Amino acid sequence: MDLPSKCNMPCAACKYLRRRCSKQCIFLPYFLRKDLDKFAVVHKVFGASNISKLLQEIPVSDREDAVTSMVFEASERLRNPVYGCVSLIASLQKQVVELQSVLNTAHAEAMVLRLRMNMSEPSPTQLPIGVPPATNLPDETINYNSYCRQQLVERDYVPDYDSMLMQLYQDT
Fold first, then answer.
1. Same domain, 41 and 56
2. Cβ atoms within 10 Å of 25's Cβ, excluding its own
3. Neighbours of 86 (CB within 10 A)
4. According to the lineage, what is the superkingdom (predicted)?
5. 8, 17, 48, 49, 53 from 20: Cα distances, Å
6. pLDDT, the chain, mean
7. Residue 5 domain-assigned?
8. What is the pLDDT at residue 132?
9. Same domain? 106 vs 166
10. What's the pLDDT at 4?
11. Residue 133 half-sphere exposure, CB side, CA atoms within 13 Å?
């Protein structure tokens, strides 16, 4: 990261705190002069002393990520004083659960379509040369669609169709 070569150009932290900025200033690489608002937010939530202590304990290679994280967390804490960034985390976790449900539904629909395709006997023109049509489908395959619907109604959620299908074929 390019650092200002002049000592008379204080970093945002030193400018905000109205103190002289040295070349060894721990804030200098992470709070450039133009980032005064960024430092003000972090200072308001964490305090300059705590930020300095934290940065000194972190390896130099990880400090930039730590500062980015502190800025985000401080901004969210000011935006939502009660929950801070936890409200965003909870919202994202809820979205993951909803999308997982949609994905499970899509997998279930795909499984049903695959089973229907396997159950429907293709016309002789659809079969590759030399492949006889399948005539003996197990009863479990035919009843699988109704079994899936029953599971959805009874459990009020989308079950894992792949494991149920494996269980059906293991029972035979």
1. yes
2. 19
3. 13
4. Eukaryota
5. 8, 9, 15, 16, 19
6. 78
7. no
8. 52
9. yes
10. 46
11. 10
